[in-house]
Write a structure and sequence with these properties.
- By secondary structure, the chain is mainly alpha-helical.
- It has one domain.
- Helices cover 69% and strands 0% of the residues.
- It contains 4 helices and no strands.
- Helix 2 packs antiparallel against helix 3.
- The protein is globular and about 45 Å long.
- It starts with 6 loop residues before the first helix and ends with a helix.
């Protein structure tokens, strides 16, 4: 079964899996105050809606850019989406206040070639 998976499909699946795993700590920070019953003493604050928008934009742009990875010509909208992808990764890091955006930037670097 693994022989039938091409390297581009595996790269796409690994990138989407990494994007989903970056979302787990973000989701925990959002749920922790609700589970702790107030949570005013928490040092880490949940990410604002702008960060969640950047996180979802990263996932949508990555899924769209890697739909035909390696088998089509690149056009201007693809380059614009690559800029949005990079800015979304930086936005996640900025609004969250952690280095999780750097993991997303490494995923974005796989789309560059």
């Amino acid at each position: 079964m693994l022989v039938r998976i091409s390297h581009t499909r595996l790269l796409r699946a690994a990138g989407l899996f990494t994007w989903a795993m970056v979302g787990l700590p973000l989701l925990y920070l959002w749920l922790a105050p609700h589970l702790a019953g107030g949570g005013d003493d928490l040092a880490l604050r949940p990410m604002p809606w702008q960060g969640w928008l950047a996180y979802l934009a990263f996932g949508a742009c990555y899924a769209w850019l890697t739909r035909g990875l390696g088998g089509r010509r690149h056009r201007l909208p693809d380059y614009l989406l690559l800029v949005v992808l990079t800015l979304a990764a930086l936005g996640v890091s900025y609004y969250n206040g952690s280095g999780l955006g750097s993991v997303l930037l490494m995923v974005a670097a796989c789309v560059l070639p």
